[in-house]
Design goal:
about 210 residues, twelve-stranded antiparallel beta sheet, 14 strands, about 30% strand, Cell_wall_metabolism_enzyme, Dup_hybrid_motif, EC 3.4.-.-
Amino acid sequence: MAGHWTARNGPATKVPSHTHNLAQTYAIDLARRPAPEPVWLWPVARRPESYPSFGAPLLAPADGQVVAASDRQRDHLSRSSLFGVLYVLGEAFVRSLGLPRHLLGNHLVLDLGNGAYAVFAHLRRGSLKVAVGDRVSAGQPFAECGNSGNSSEPHVHFHLMDGPDITSARGLRFTWRYQDDDGREYEGVPADNTCFSPVGTATADEPMPYTEP
């Protein structure tokens, strides 16, 4: 990815950051800021185009091969108001009863080699520039940020896993090189609500012991 992003629901703050389900143990959500402030009552929902994340180009974190890709699901309205939050809670439960794509929305899985697979979810409908079997290079644009699947506002969901099948794989830790607003560079994973700009590619750490929740 390029540009200025804010980390949310990441493993630097809590593990599991999401859930162990679908290899999301060390997942992170990323959104561009500034964005419309959440409201309690009105407007109930906003169009995804109201958010700077929507349509932002996504770049491959490393060389790899596409092993799964889907971009036919619609980009829905935001769910950030009080009524929207209540709605998305029920919606998430219903989506969890279906296939993984109902939660991930439009998504892409890259085989990075050495047993690591990168997942990008909530992509913009019709934005995929690659197909299953294609090779991609680090820094190559492959899709755009969207608001499909189980998403309250346009953002990118990212995680690494140890196999191509998201229903049986386990999450892997990863590190990034990134720069904060003061120009300082770090290697690791930004904590929740940290504003940063990527300055390198993602690297898989050694697989960590997996514990059932």
